[in-house]
């Protein structure tokens, strides 16, 4: 099995996903929020790129969720903080989600045979699901404003470590995957501190959202596999 890591949405070309399983990563916060929403009982999450697309897709009882520049979009039901997605709010309801980077990443990956939403929260469950699909794997770091984001690279390295441990026949990796593996190993035990030190983490801290960073750094706190099926992310 081979694994590659793409550093940001801006570097994602369609041919890099063909005949592969894609794991899209946006630790702060889209894929963490997707996992939290499914854990809380949402029936599924449609990801769209624009606010207009979200409003056009909404049906009665659907919830609109999303952010721009880390802030909740005016008029939407929910923002992009995992703690907002409680069972009382989302149980059995469909969510239409648009974010600055993560939802773009999920759309970039549609050429893959399988698309999973990965985060630190569901690291082990998502890794096992990817291994079970028996395809080469591409990890897409959504990044921030078309640039590499520290927290996504850290999570990609964690996935590479798990994939390596779960591949009895060995794991081939590209150079960037090897670099992120080393980054993760050097950051073990300091996940919150590493997330908080990146550009996105610093921005969230400035906005008083340290709790979101804490939540998103909780390794393997969920067994949810968020898988794209028919254009919607559901519990795989």
Percent in helix? 25-40%
In DSSP terms (H or I, runs of 4 or more residues), the helix count works out at 10
Widest beta sheet: strand line-up: 5-4-6-3-11-10-7-2-8-1-9
Low-confidence stretches: none
State the separation between the terminal residues, measured CA to CA.
22 Å
Oligomer: single chain
CATH-defined topology: putative 2-phosphosulfolactate phosphatase
Describe this structure in words.
The protein is α/β, with parallel strands linked by helices and 236 residues long. The chain has one domain: putative 2-phosphosulfolactate phosphatase (Alpha-Beta Complex). It contains ten helices and eleven strands. The protein has an eleven-stranded mixed beta sheet, with helices on both faces. A hairpin with a 2-residue loop joins strand 4 and strand 5. Helix 5 crosses helix 6. The longest helix has 16 residues.
């Amino acid at each position: 099995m081979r694994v590659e890591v793409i550093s940001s949405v801006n570097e994602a070309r369609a041919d890099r996903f063909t005949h592969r399983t894609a794991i899209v990563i946006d630790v702060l916060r889209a894929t963490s929020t997707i996992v939290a929403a499914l854990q809380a009982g949402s029936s599924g999450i449609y990801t769209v790129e624009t606010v207009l697309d979200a409003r056009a897709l909404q049906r009665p009882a659907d919830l609109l969720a999303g952010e721009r520049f880390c802030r909740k979009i005016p008029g939407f039901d929910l923002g992009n903080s995992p703690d907002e997605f409680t069972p009382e709010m989302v149980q059995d309801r469909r969510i239409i989600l648009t974010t600055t980077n993560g939802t773009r990443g999920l759309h970039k990956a549609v050429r893959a045979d399988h698309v999973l939403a990965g985060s630190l929260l569901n690291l082990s469950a998502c890794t096992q699901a990817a291994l079970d699909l028996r395809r080469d794997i591409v990890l897409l770091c959504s990044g921030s404003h078309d640039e590499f984001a520290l927290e996504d690279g850290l999570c990609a390295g964690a996935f590479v470590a798990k994939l390596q441990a779960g591949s009895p026949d060995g794991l081939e990796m590209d150079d960037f995957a090897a670099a992120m593996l080393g980054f993760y190993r050097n950051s073990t035990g300091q996940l919150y501190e590493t997330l908080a030190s990146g550009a996105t983490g610093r921005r969230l801290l400035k906005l008083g959202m340290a709790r979101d960073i804490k939540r998103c750094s909780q390794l393997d706190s969920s067994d949810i596999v968020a898988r794209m099926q028919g254009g919607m992310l559901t519990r795989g």
